[in-house]
Amino acid sequence: MNGQFPNTLNEQVTNTFHNIKIVMQSEDLHAEHIIKVNVWATEKIDWDYLYNEWEQLFDHDYPAMTIGYITELGLPEIKIEIEIWAAKL
């Protein structure tokens, strides 16, 4: 990536899940290792889109999840932050 963020929230969801998948694979982590998800968004989330992207990566495993709408994230162009906590127990 060239340091630019995708424009739309849905594009950012796709990009974020792609990055999460790469990191999890590099650590040999899978859906069953996810224990917590935090989602922060600056605009309304298209839940059908987000869950479709989730299910493509992690099937129907839904861990504990915190969702919050906030006024801004670290940079003005960032519309969503998805934080995954995963651990091998």
Automatic annotation (TrEMBL):
Matches recorded under Gene3D superfamilies: RutC-like
Taxonomic superkingdom: Bacteria
InterPro entries referenced in this protein's UniProt entry, alphabetically: RutC-like_sf, YjgF/YER057c/UK114
Identification of the protein by name: Enamine deaminase RidA, house cleaning of reactive enamine intermediates, YjgF/YER057c/UK114 family
Organism of this sequence: Paenibacillus polysaccharolyticus
